[in-house]
Specification:
Elements: H1 2-10, H2 14-39, H3 44-50, H4 55-62, H5 69-78
InterPro entries: Cro/C1-type_HTH (IPR001387), Lambda_DNA-bd_dom_sf (IPR010982)
Protein name: HTH cro/C1-type domain-containing protein
Pfam families: HTH_3 (PF01381)
Length: about 90
Amino acid sequence: MMIKKLIEEKKKDKDFAEAYDREGRKLETAVALYHAREEAGLTQAELAQKAHTTQSTIARIERGDNVSFDKLDDIARALGKKLVVEFA
């Protein structure tokens, strides 16, 4: 419970709040890819082969590292899915 309180206090700082939110969006992308890959029954290596990339690239994305839209689109297509970007 204390960590939530600390984060809320820190989020009063605009720069911190922006960075926190940005990292949260990266994590959402990482989790979405992980779940899509698991749902497809693929290992990182198998998905990488289908997406014409490397296993380490898939691992980096699943850790929340930055990735290009082109790479995400390649991966989505390899999963038989469509990449959708939404501004809400």
